[in-house]
Amino acid sequence: MSRLLPIALLAGLVVLPLALGSSPYVLNALITTGILTIGAMSLNLLLGFTGQLSLGHIAFFGIGAYVSALTSLGFDVEIGFGYRIVHEPWPAAIGVLLGILAAGACGYLIGRLSFRVRGAYFVIVTVSFAEVVRLVALNWVELTQGPLALTNIPAVTLGIPGLGTWTLRTKLQNYYLVLGTGTLCYLIIARLVGSRFGRAMRGLKENESLALSVGINAARTLTIATVISAAMAGAAGSLYAHYLRIIDPDIFQFATTVTMVIMVVAGGKGTLLGPVVGGLIFGLLPVALRPVMAPEAQWMVYGIVLIAILFVMPKGIVPGVSVLLARLRSTRSVPVLEASPAVPR
Amino acid sequence: MSPILSVEHVGVRFGGLVAIADLHFDVREGEIVSLIGPNGAGKTTAFNVMTGFLKPSQGEVRFRGTGLTGLPSHEITRLGLARTFQRTSVFPDDTVFDNVMIGLHRKGAQASRAPLFDALIGRAGAAERRLRARAEELLDWVGLSERSQEKAGALAYGEQRLVGVALALATEPAMLLLDEPVSGMNASETQVFVRLIRQIRERGVTILLVEHDMPMVMEVSDRIVVLNYGRLIAEGPPAGIRSDPAVIEAYLGQGSAARRAAAEAQEPADA
Amino acid sequence: MDQLIQHLVNTLILGGTYALLGIGLTLIFGIMNVVNFTHGALYTVGAYLMYLSVAALGLNFFLALPVAILGGLLFGAAIELLLLRPFRGSDIDTTMLVMIGAGIVLQSATLWIFGGVAKAIPSPFPEAPLDIGPVSVSWLRLFVLGAALALIAITYALINRTRLGLAMRAAFQDADTAALMGVNVRLVYTATFAIGSSLAAAAGALLGPVYVVFPQMGGLAELKAFAIVILGGLGNLKGAAIGGFILALAEELGAGYVSSGYRDAMGFLIIIAVLLYKPTGLFAKAERIG
């Protein structure tokens, strides 16, 4: 059943635009929700499976967006001492790839730096890192145009040799691009979590001393997890840039990281489906709330919901529901049940 | 025969407090050695130094000739020195089986050159199957096969200890440090455990244990090292230790109230 | 040279309020093991309470300051009682998430009530700065420094000279043992959070009149407080006080000699440097013993 659920969900998401008649407003909401959900899945890899909270996840997202945009737009900047770097525009697909690599590289540096000491340090380092990246995007006007924004970012062009190329300009095409990327990220995370590496992450989270004593290298494991997580966030960010075709330093808002955190915590951290469920709810909720609420009131609701979930369902929706289902089943049949597994397989 | 582990003039100070003063002893390959002493004598501190959880203020611990000072814990495990913990000996939210799978981390590394990549492309199947077989073997060996699918955190205390031993054995150590393995066990559980310790030794693993249960220590040990107030006060075979005046003085010289106070003063550092 | 002296004077003035911010945050972390993500929001609350009292209610500037500090105290106590007490015993991540939620609520409430337009708080001090040789300081800023130093002194006295302070120090060492010895740890926690919050509110109330007041002002202040606390060592009060001045110095020199756009990036550079060379902070005490 728990194996079928993700497949059913995927099937539902594949046919969703057909069912909704692909109105641009709804499609836009679905695409941004999908992109944020990928961000939430990447955050969950850290927060849920290693217990490390990255509060600067938006930095990786934004770096992916900017690197990808700049690669495909080209730039010409002076780097001091009279030297200039001139870059001619490259295809957007290469931009996405470089965006992912750049975000992963930043994840590596942050991991190496903060996992010498853990816990609160990682949180503080990541949140500060995001602020610095925002300052760079704002102040390095020659490269990023600063608050004037990078505009006319090209759409992604996919090519299959012998079959031709497609430029993904329409919303529907972008929807499927995001869905495909999200599915890929889900599969990667599922593989990782079920592997030896996933066991090392869980071991560190549950009992660090014991994990060290069986030979698990904490700094290395956590750094690798950060790299993968950052790279996925970077992928989400570069999709965002090529979908919106315009990005400015506002992309680095702390609020976006918090949205991802809420998605993960509400859906169920440390579960594969949690961030997807949380992502869909909190990605689409603003769309539902927009007609009835001012944005600041909406944010207040978000804050209250986050606190309420921690009070009522501290493990999140997915584990909460599976415990509920298990209880329902046990009233019908006798066998002893096991509490919801941390990872639905 | 050359020692497998030598503790060379190790001292540990916390601020002004001397936890261990100039501890010096050897363990030879294949031995079962016990480290005993009244509460607060510095036994757990000594364990933490040997396994890299604590840096000594002076001296050096050598394992098979390699100095351990400054090595992180996971490196020490790689050299073949494993340990168990006094209190938190399991990964509580995982099943007993998955606990041992986590313990087989090192063995998994030997199976493949790029395990992370293999896992991603789904090529880790064969290696995983070998690990699973090994995990079942280990569980069978410590007698926990029937508990394999239960959450480790939900097991009885004594059973959690056995999981801890299975975890340590999963690293295929040449030497095993057991931190109060039978505390909280009843007499028959202790007997089973004593047999287990002997079996482990028969497989060629050297054993050093810290323990309070004197009958158990006397029964299982080849040699006993006695600590008091961070100093070595006696060393020798069980028979000699039993009649050593310094040891008797150390254990009887303290009133029970003083001993309790000492117990509270030394928070065991197994975290 | 004159410019350098001016920067040093500015450092002193800015450093006082930074130290307040840092002490409040590190106090809460040290005693309660809570990373207070409402710290920035409470800083904002302090500034807006000052604005409300002075500009809207017409209260005397010097009376408004204690009102803002008291307000921070009450807000802090309420947050602790409502949101932290029920989560006692939870892991640090859970309380961190609760605090993030509370911070969002506070910040968006401020935005909702006061709107996004920045407000100025009128001050009773003369516009003309005080000129001493090459250095020029506004009277307001001098007052801010004096008030910050006075508040730091009061906090130290509170911790080192009172029964409550003794209980706080006991809980800092080991909450369980303190409870066994008859310390009312629940009360200590509430008091600690309230005091830490009031220091954040005080910093906001003092810097509000110097700059302007706007709902997002707390975000940066919070990041700076984090940098100060890492610099001084998590949970180290003296470290936080000195860290406040070091961060102010770095910002002044960075803004003066490198680029004013990156003034706010100095905190992060400090964090990196500390983590690279002295990960436990400049003045760390051992996290635990044995």
Describe the protein's architecture and organization.
- The complex is a heterotrimer of chains A (345), B (271) and C (290).
- With 345 residues, chain A is mainly α.
- Chain A contains 14 helices and four strands.
- Helices cover 68% and strands 6% of the residues of chain A.
- Chain B has two domains: 3-80 and 173-266, P-loop containing nucleotide triphosphate hydrolases (Rossmann fold, 3-Layer(aba) Sandwich); 93-164, no CATH class.
- Chain B is globular, with a radius of gyration of 19 Å.
- With 290 residues, chain C is mainly α.
- Chain C has eleven helices and two strands.
- In chain C, a hairpin with a 2-residue loop joins strand 1 and strand 2.
Assembly context of the chains = heterotrimer
Strand content of chain C: under 5%
H and E string of chain B: EEEHEEHEHHHHHEHEHEEHHH
> Which sheet architecture does the biggest sheet of chain B show?
6 strands, mixed
Distance between the termini of chain B: 35 Å
Q: Which value, in Å, is the CA radius of gyration of chain C?
A: 19 Å
Q: Biggest protein-protein interface?
A: A-C, 41 and 44 residues
Uncertain runs of chain C: 286-290
Rg of chain B is 19 Å
Structural class of chain B: alpha/beta
Q: Give a count of the beta strands of chain B, DSSP E runs of length 2 or more.
A: 10
Number of helices, counting only DSSP H or I runs of 4 residues or more of chain C:
11
CATH architecture classification of the largest domain in chain B: 3-Layer(aba) Sandwich
What letter string, H or E per element, gives the SSE order of chain C?
HHHHEEHHHHHHH
Q: Please tell me the overall pLDDT of chain C.
A: 88
What is the topological layout?
The complex is a heterotrimer of chains A (345), B (271) and C (290).
Chain A: H1 4-20, H2 24-47, H3 57-73, E1 75-80, E2 83-87, H4 92-114, H5 120-139, H6 141-144, E3 157-160, E4 164-167, H7 171-193, H8 196-206, H9 208-213, H10 218-244, H11 254-267, H12 274-289, H13 295-312, H14 317-332
Antiparallel strand pairs in A: 1-2, 3-4
Helix pairs in contact in A: 1-7, 2-7, 2-10, 2-11, 2-12, 3-4, 3-5, 3-10, 4-10, 7-10, 8-10, 11-12, 11-13
Chain B: E1 3-14, E2 17-28, E3 32-36, H1 43-50, E4 58-63, E5 66-67, H2 73-78, E6 81-83, H3 96-103, H4 105-111, H5 115-120, H6 125-142, H7 157-170, E7 175-179, H8 187-202, E8 206-210, H9 214-220, E9 223-228, E10 231-236, H10 238-242, H11 245-252, H12 256-265
Parallel strand pairs in B: 3-8, 3-9, 6-7, 7-8
Antiparallel strand pairs in B: 1-2, 1-4, 4-5, 9-10
Chain C: H1 2-32, H2 39-56, H3 61-84, H4 92-114, E1 130-132, E2 135-137, H5 139-161, H6 163-173, H7 175-180, H8 185-210, H9 217-232, H10 237-257, H11 266-277
Antiparallel strand pairs in C: 1-2
